[in-house]
Amino acid sequence: MRDAYLMMVLMDALKEIFDLKEILKSPIRNKKVILFVSLVFILSLVLLYILVVNIKYFSYLGDIIFQNFQKHVENLKITLNEDNLHIILAIWKNNLTVCILNYILGIFSLFVIAVNSYILSYVLYKFGAESFIYLVLPHGIIEIPALILSASGGVLFNMGLVNFLINIKFGTKREVLYYIKESLKLLILSIILFIVAGIVEGTITFKIAKIMFS
Q1: Range of the domain at 84
Q2: Which of 81, 96, 166, 201 is most buried (CB neighbours < 10 A)?
Q3: Which sequence ranges are marked TM in the entry?
Q4: Average of pLDDT values for 20-41?
Q5: What is d(CA 1, CA 6) in angstroms, rounded to the nearest whole number?
């Protein structure tokens, strides 16, 4: 009887997690966590841009981080002569890796958020607003929310684990299950957005890059 009950609970949970309406409502229910992660991203972006512009050390550190980022992009083996499908698949692989890593890291995904803010602030400083608008914004307006959602999902998952392991106040099984379900809904939504962002980056942004660098 207990096994049958657990199976029924699991099936109900899976049905809820993959319900599109529930997935779309999840950001509203978890807006406080999402706003917190968004605030970390925005403040990091603004603060790091100010530091990069005004302090040479941060500009130098930005050089190192950006060079490592470029090496990572080169490892994807994307060139201006590649077909769109190859580019999109390579971007998807990279984006989904970041998405899952963000989720697994939980609260430590805020460090990933800060590093991405550093890269964006450095690109804006190094290449100017025009290049930033043309080469980052087309896919960035989708990719950045996806990054924030995956990090928010990771934070929620951590909250569920803390409740489970330490059994702090309100640490009931129902509370733990709620956190895990909500975190997975945000993860699924972030994956969807990362897929869309990859298509935009592999088509629109890529075409803009070809025009600018040809």
Answers
A1: 2-213
A2: 201
A3: 33-53, 104-124, 132-152, 153-173, 186-206
A4: 94
A5: 9
Give me 152's structure tokens: 């928010």
At residue 65's C-alpha, the angle toward residues 64 and 70, to 5°, is: 95
Q: pTM of this prediction?
A: 0.86
pLDDT per residue over 133-155, tens digit each?
998 999 999 999 999 999 999 99
For residues 134 and 139, give the distance between their C-alpha atoms in angstroms, rounded to a whole number. 10
Annotate the chain with three-state secondary structure. Answer: CHHHHHHHHHHHHHHHHCCHHHHHHHHHHCHHHHHHHHHHHHHHHHHHHHHHHHCHHHHHHHHHHHHHHHHHHHHCCCCCCCCHHHHHHHHHHHHHHHHHHHHHHHHHHHHHHHHHHHHHHHHHHHHHHHHHHHHCHHHHHHHHHHHHHHHHHHHHHHHHHHHHHHCCCCCCHHHHHHHHHHHHHHHHHHHHHHHHHHHHHHHHHHHHHHHHHC
- How many structural domains compose the chain? 1
Among residues 89, 141, 88, 146, the alpha carbon closest in space to that of 113 is found at 146
